[in-house]
Design a protein that fits this description.
The protein has helices at about 10-20, 50-60, 65-70, 70-75, 110-120, 180-210, 225-240, 245-255, 260, 280-295, 295-300, 310-320, 320-330, 335-370, and strands at about 35, 40, 85-90, 105, 135, 140-145, 155-160, 165-170. By secondary structure, it is mainly α. The strands form four sheets. It has a two-stranded antiparallel ribbon. A two-stranded antiparallel sheet has the order 3-4. Helix 6 crosses helix 7, helix 8 (about 245-255) runs antiparallel to helix 12 and helix 13 (about 320-330) runs antiparallel to helix 14 (about 335-370). The chain is elongated. The structure holds zinc ion (2 copies). One zinc ion binds next to loops.
Length: about 375
């Protein structure tokens, strides 16, 4: 094994892959998810065991704290499964032998990879690329992708060549993944301020995952755990609001635009169990943008909030029972969001009363005309 230093922002499995040049370390048993003694799934990139860290430290001479930081639970002590990007989460009800293992959905920033390549550095997977709390690269405010721009394959590998450092390449067409998405290049001039704003909200989520108190100018009277729980709950209630599909479409019509999905057409249907964690990068950007519009005061400064208020449409979509329940949950819902939701509830009730009156008066007029 060659001992290479991990990059400070690298994911554990990425570092191990770089240390084992002749094998695909991503498929190694030590890097596969497994159940712990209590029967819960654990992924080594998220929860590396203490024994694994100690063993790696003694084999490589690298400090255990430096290695621990490559695991998401050390980098983000408040992390929970809702904020990790999963490709597959096994059901608790399936038989233990026939279920596929828990697996991460790794995305990447083509600009970071292009910088690695141009700088003669080895390509590596950044820890944040395995997070559901991000649809943009925080360094480049650039949309993350999870498939090859040339052939659409989601399979990739670190390719070594005698001429240069390892590159992240598509496993099907073999092209380097540092190629930028042509759609994103075309959209960038117009979408840049939106991307920057959403990336700023994602940075606030990542800070909250480290336990840092959110900026009180943007998230007044909101704790780190409230910001995280509000984000998860907004996505979950929206994903479960299937009965009001029309209203939900109104919300997605506003956000599922090429600026966020990088393509025409709707993103995938959100999961009712873990909407953010199981979303594709396109759907993830739409969901995070909806949360930013409802929670982040900076969103109002972008000039994006034209038309009906997002919080009003969201509140009508999830229905008044679910809304009242959410407002009463003082642990999850901050006093600021409570006020916004109560105001939305009030406006929606007024709107419904007005449309009821309009309908009634229309019926009355028709009746009058008929009898005349
Ligand atoms: Zn980047
Ligand atoms: Zn390809």
């Amino acid at each position: 094994m060659t001992f290479v230093e991990p990059f400070p922002d690298e994911l554990l499995s990425s570092w191990l892959t770089r240390m084992r040049p002749n094998r695909n370390a991503m498929n190694e048993p030590s890097l596969r998810a497994s159940r712990n003694s209590a029967g819960h799934w654990r992924h080594p990139d998220v929860h590396p065991t203490k024994s694994m860290i100690t063993e790696l430290a003694s084999n490589t001479g690298i400090a255990p704290t430096q290695i621990a930081k490559l695991g998401l639970c050390y980098r983000y002590p408040r992390i929970n499964p809702d904020f990790v990007a999963w490709r597959y989460v096994p059901s608790d009800y399936l038989g233990r032998d026939c279920e596929p293992a828990l697996s991460l959905r790794i995305t990447w920033c083509s600009r970071c990879l292009a910088e690695d390549y141009a700088g003669g550095r080895a390509a590596y997977v950044r820890a944040d690329w395995a997070m559901a709390a991000g649809g943009f690269c925080s360094r480049h405010n650039w949309p993350l992708v999870d498939r090859c721009v040339t052939c659409g394959s989601v399979d990739w590998a670190m390719k070594r060549s005698p001429q240069g450092p390892p590159r992240m390449c598509c496993a099907r067409c073999r092209r380097g993944l540092e190629r930028a998405n042509p759609g994103a290049l075309e959209l960038e001039p117009a979408a840049h301020s939106l991307w920057k704003m959403i990336a700023g909200f994602e940075a606030a989520l990542r800070d909250a995952l480290t336990g840092k108190v959110p900026d009180q100018f943007r998230f007044n009277d909101t704790s780190a755990s409230q910001l995280l729980d509000e984000t998860s709950t907004i996505c979950l209630l929206l994903a479960r609001a299937r009965r009001r599909a029309g209203l939900r479409d109104e919300l997605f019509d506003r956000f599922a635009t090429p600026a966020l999905t990088l393509e025409h057409g709707c993103p995938d249907e959100p999961s009712c169990e873990m909407p953010l964690a199981l979303a594709s990068p396109s759907l993830r950007r739409c969901l995070i943008a909806i949360c930013a519009a409802m929670l982040d005061a900076d969103y109002g400064a972008t000039g994006l909030c034209q038309g009906k208020l997002v919080v009003d449409i969201w509140s009508r979509t999830i229905g008044s029972m679910a809304l009242k329940h959410f407002i009463q949950d003082r642990l999850t819902c901050s006093s600021t969001l409570k006020r916004k939701l109560e105001a939305a509830l009030h406006r929606n009730e007024q709107f419904e009363r007005m449309s009821y009156l309009r309908d009634a008066s229309h019926t009355y007029e028709t009746l009058f005309q008929d009898s005349a």
